[in-house]
Write a structure and sequence with these properties.
It is a single chain. This protein is an alpha/beta fold. It is built from 10 helices and 9 strands. The strands form 2 sheets. It has a 7-stranded mixed sheet with strand order 5-4-3-6-8-7-9, sandwiched between helices. Strands 1-2 form a two-stranded antiparallel ribbon. It catalyses: a di-trans,poly-cis-dolichyl phosphate + UDP-alpha-D-glucose = a di-trans,poly-cis-dolichyl beta-D-glucosyl phosphate + UDP. It is found in: Endoplasmic reticulum membrane. Belongs to the glycosyltransferase 2 family. Keywords: Endoplasmic reticulum, Glycosyltransferase, Membrane, Signal-anchor, Transferase, Transmembrane, Transmembrane helix.
Length: 325
Amino acid sequence: MALPLSLPGVAAVLAGLAALLLVLIMMIAHVTAVKMPTLHRHEEEKFFINAEGMKEAVPSIHDPPTKELSVVVPSYNEEDRLPLMMDEALDYLEKRQKRDPSFTYEVIVVDDGSKDQTTQVAMKYCKKYGSDKVRVLSLVKNRGKGGAVRMGVFISRGKKILMADADGATKFADIEKVEEGLENLQPWPNQMAISCGSRAHLEKDSIAKRSYFRTLLMYGFHFLVWFLCVKEIRDTQCGFKLLTREAALRTFSTLHIERWAFDVELLYIAQCFRIPIAEVAVNWTEIEGSKLVPFWSWLQMGRDLLFIRLRYMTGAWQLETRKCN
């Protein structure tokens, strides 16, 4: 007759099982990792349609900058929300250019394989403001938010590159706050720096409006981000980030994740390269129509966070850069 295990014995068995599970997860993370694939651009993605309806070859982030600012707007089925964001952004940018004629800009709307009229809506702004100021890149298939942002970054002409969500949740004029955050990081090592818009100051108000379950998911995600990847930034997921051209090239050329958790890997890469990062409070309003499905999206992001850490730790992913073909 088998004797029952003592408490220390049970603890030892559980510790052994936990260690075995961790080794198994590490093996899965390593074996399933895609090791720096070539960033393929479909033939149709090598051009954008200008205001006259003609094809023009896209520029490259490897070219010298010709604008002060590029604004990259990833868009997936955003025909309803995009106009409000574009109206606000372009109104601000046009007024700023009138005040300061040396200020030049472009807005790049990246249609991430939408099934609605997102491209057609964006093209109206291209025709109104001209294709030197508004460009529309239509991706052949959906890549995910991170993939769409990267494709926009890689055809940017700006000295600084701003990621801005299509829903317009962040007040666009707050770009001045993130610009100030970027300037405060001077001197920039190798001209690289990142300034992140942040909603962390709004956390108490948002908790009051959320269910206990969503609040639990939020805290769990924040803990995983802090524990596994990024310790210095409280809000990694705000879609309002300003990067110097050099920082954008270095981080996005190394990026593996193309969906919701790409922000975390981006900042993890920046920390590994010792790129200085600022976090700046911005005005933010929740806009209806989010593509996130609360439970499953958070679950997927949690998995991605674990895999980010394990894949870099085991050497499955390397901090090296790629060119987009």
